[in-house]
User: Fold these one by one.
Assistant:
Number 1:
Amino acid sequence: MPQSLVGCGEGVLDSGKTRNAKVTIRHVASDAGVSVAAVSKVLRNAYGVSEELRAKVMKSIEKLGYRPSTAARGMRGRTYSIGMLLVEMKNPFLPSVVEGVKAELRKAGYQTLIGVGDAKASIERSLIESMIDLQMDGLLLVAPRISGTVLSRYALQCPVAVVGHHEASAKTFDTVNSNDESGARSAVEALLGSGCKRVHMLSLPRTNEAHEVFALREAGYLAAMAEAGLSDHAHIWRVRERPNGPGDPVDVIFDRGELPDAVFCWSDIHAIELLNKAHERGIAVPDQLCVVGYDNTPVSAMPLIGLSSIEQHGEVMGRTAAKSLLSRLAGRTDPEHIVIEPSLVRRRSMRG
Amino acid sequence: MPQSLVGCGEGVLDSGKTRNAKVTIRHVASDAGVSVAAVSKVLRNAYGVSEELRAKVMKSIEKLGYRPSTAARGMRGRTYSIGMLLVEMKNPFLPSVVEGVKAELRKAGYQTLIGVGDAKASIERSLIESMIDLQMDGLLLVAPRISGTVLSRYALQCPVAVVGHHEASAKTFDTVNSNDESGARSAVEALLGSGCKRVHMLSLPRTNEAHEVFALREAGYLAAMAEAGLSDHAHIWRVRERPNGPGDPVDVIFDRGELPDAVFCWSDIHAIELLNKAHERGIAVPDQLCVVGYDNTPVSAMPLIGLSSIEQHGEVMGRTAAKSLLSRLAGRTDPEHIVIEPSLVRRRSMRG
DNA sequence: ATGAAAGCGCTAACAC
DNA sequence: GTGTTAGCGCTTTCAT
């Protein structure tokens, strides 16, 4: 006989005043007059429960407003939640990735909890560890700054899928990436095709990590310039992502030397900044200066902006990564490295 | 106060190729030759541990790369993580709030995990419940769509602070808001002061919730118009936040009747859309049409856009809400309802 | 100052 | 089918 009732008052829920005593599986069991195990089985749709019992249990669950504790559940089984790590919040490209991930995970019954890493490896690590310690069933990392070595260490503890971080040889986790090299190539080729010769690139300060997307975009840029026999005109400006001191980093392009014919930017963030600066200085776009960005961010599509940009299909990348993670959760162990082709969206900021 | 335990640093973790066997508190205890309770005390900086013992334990922790399981910890004590619910991801105002919240919580040793509600009450609820079930120590809700009644029910189960949701009479949770009415007022007054008479407002489709920020902004708008004796010229256009069919909702302003002198928009999202449409139609801003938005979003500050807007001080709101939540976690039970004064930022889109 | 032991809410063998 | 019973990894009395 079920007698293991702890000192938890009546099964009656709060009437509104005091903080809820949490309804546990035991309350449900006793209310339904069955064992705790039976309730657990109903919860998990496990094999071997009669329709009667299931009905009784469901009724009590409803009546008591019971919700299983994910935390407790996670100690033995799954939490059905996955942790998503975002580099930062302000890049307007990321929402589309999040959307894709959430949609796909939701279909599979998983919740998505997001942590924001502020583009700092140390924060990313503490976030990842928190997520693991919260017993998330899997990790979905978007453009993490931490190295592949560290990633694989985490991947040992918890299934991991990574977006926007080239690590095609990784054995313990999956990756989904845009073909950053070919994206850059098509941007530069289009620029060259429209008559530009001195095509520069605006990129980030160099890091020693070759897996960063902008490193591959630089490679694509250089390759395209070389193939056109214009290596001499190639130049990569490296500036911070956001101004963090006085003076705007993007200004260097205008302040030093002769204006290039066109600038290919590693990201719309820089490209839009550039468009605004050009406007302020009375430089005509695209007549005097052509610009192509990367990400096809919503702002780039605004008539007042009209920025040509490389569309990465963020939502597709998100969906794809989520699917990878799910299949890994389902048991796959051999790594999967998916590359998605980007495409150029032409707007006012370039000729042709 | 939680402790910042070193994660799996350079220390040798598992020597093998298989998935890590998790290092538990028991491994540490046995390695250090002390009891499990002792380790727990060290972990929590609890009273009554000798320096020797603490040192021994710390050494083992380091050596084994031990991290306490937040999930297990949550079953008795705190998880030191709080759940943040965002209405949606694409509103560029939200990152600043997130930043404020994270900064403040981080100082207090808490992790912030974010869920995105897609502006749907049902999703919000399931997210909130997940967060509670994951044993988050507190909830920080940003512009939730769910009603105050439901909110207070959750507040019974877990400390809650809410941003951007007017519920000044709530007894069980805290709120932090911008003074939306006065923000709207100052926008409209500035517009009227610059000579505009027929000032319209662009708002969202009406809901039956008076707690929504745009409802208060409407009130401020109407009040300002009334005080200027211009109620007859007042008109509120209600359009969807984003186009979800063919044709853009903002077009109504141009398509029906005479053009207003100025439009005050409940959000920069609408205002920027409006600016773009005006540009496309060759309507001169601010000569033929003045526009003021709300949120002072990064895009509004761009030279190519030049949108006047109401600055809500999102980061401050975030910080403030986080502080409220923390003080509630520390034991406060009487509610706190804080209102922050916004201010107008003048740019090209208005005269004067 | 330290440790043994009783849970926290749940899952999963294994009995019956 | 259904219930009993060990734990999961941790916190927290309460002895010692």
Note: Chain B touches chain A through 57 residues (CB under 8 Å).
Number 2:
Amino acid sequence: MPTRAQTRAATQERIVAAARSLVTAGNELTLRAVARELDMTAPALYRYAASHQDLVKMVALAIDADVAERVAGAAAAHPAEDPAARLIAAAVEFRTWALGNRAEFALVFTNVDVECISDLTATASTGMRFSELLFALWQQVQFPIPALSDLDPQLAEIMRDPQVPADLTDVPEDMRGLVWVLERAWSRLYGTVTLETFGHIDPRVVAQGHLFRAMVNDQAGPLGLEPDLPRLTALLDELL
Amino acid sequence: MPTRAQTRAATQERIVAAARSLVTAGNELTLRAVARELDMTAPALYRYAASHQDLVKMVALAIDADVAERVAGAAAAHPAEDPAARLIAAAVEFRTWALGNRAEFALVFTNVDVECISDLTATASTGMRFSELLFALWQQVQFPIPALSDLDPQLAEIMRDPQVPADLTDVPEDMRGLVWVLERAWSRLYGTVTLETFGHIDPRVVAQGHLFRAMVNDQAGPLGLEPDLPRLTALLDELL
DNA sequence: CGAAGATAGTTAACGGTGTAAACTCTTTGA
DNA sequence: TCAAAGAGTTTACACCGTTAACTATCTTCG
């Protein structure tokens, strides 16, 4: 027979799963609806989530972990020797998921209430996956990275002790400029996908993926993808 | 004595104002709270908004109009002969406002429920202000714009009949590539500000404005601001 | 002018929500 | 074994969006 801790963990999982299925189905994420789904009463959920906000946060973390896995999976469809293809496949997967799951995307990535930095950094977050992919790309292509001395001193200080991306603590100091490249690339991807998802732009441009393609094109230069661009563009056409 | 239509319009305004003040104050935007604010009962509001969603939309439009005005005001602090300074001042104002009013920003710019394209295009929207500023800049600087024939044919077709930005219908066809430049620039600004606002990045980078500065720097080239960059960077330092 | 109708507002009510309190069982651990 | 801890329940409260029925008040037009 299962121990208490086991059933508790199982229930915890069922709660998050039920909550996720609700928001995926486009329904309201409410304590009572989750309880109904699990044949429980709403107050029982307070044994697992301190508040409604807390439940939302749990769901957000679960979704983020899931999309991180999807992104990693899309990347894994290409060989490790082709980090450029991996990166592009991951980016396309992220975009496709966001456009197809606007409510979930909003919950995780544009939620004012969920404190993300503190929690998402602890777990396997989507942003971290991109950090890893970009790092792998750099290991192969050796695109130029700024020297810390070329950066604003304050900024250089931050790069010496990076907070948000992957665990690059073992990256030697003279190539910590990579973190900056990384954050800038993430900002482009995140920004483009968010704009496309929330539609503050001509919808036809979104539908045909022009904005996304242009963003990738822009990044090709700084990321040393120029020589490979025709092949990667073809890959993009195929995936979009 | 005021006619019926007048009092109605006044009440309408008071409703939106009260609703705005609620979300500005960080409170929940609820029909009953708005009614309370105005010494009314909640059902009375149904004479002015068809539903709660409708009220939210009204507030979103009001906020958008307000930030559009702020942006225009910030631009107007610089002479019309200096469109570059105008553009930068406007961008900084947009960013500052977003960071200082996350809830309102989310309501207007990353709201899944509010259909923005259809409604925001009709009124004076924030995006449109930037279109105008960028157009003014182009008139002075004549930064290069792509020929429609250089663009993807589908994309070129969209540019011939632009939907979202300003009323550029009187722009001759051989410079409609400007619309594309415009949408791309907006995507950079929107994306950067959204990322900074929702904090999926190292908060220290946001606080010091490095990401925003880098974004502006990136845009300087394509927008023909290179020669002016030192001056504009100084302006940026001053405004941030 | 005066009656008919439209309009702004009310009260009452319904079902749904988050959450607290008090209460049962059942499991755990000394 | 027995007391403490834990999972879940019922009950209750205040709040929410929304509808229906009703009352004034203003407008309009014969």
Note: Residues 4, 7-8, 11, 40-41, 43-44, 47 of chain A lie near DNA strand D (CB under 10 Å from a C1').
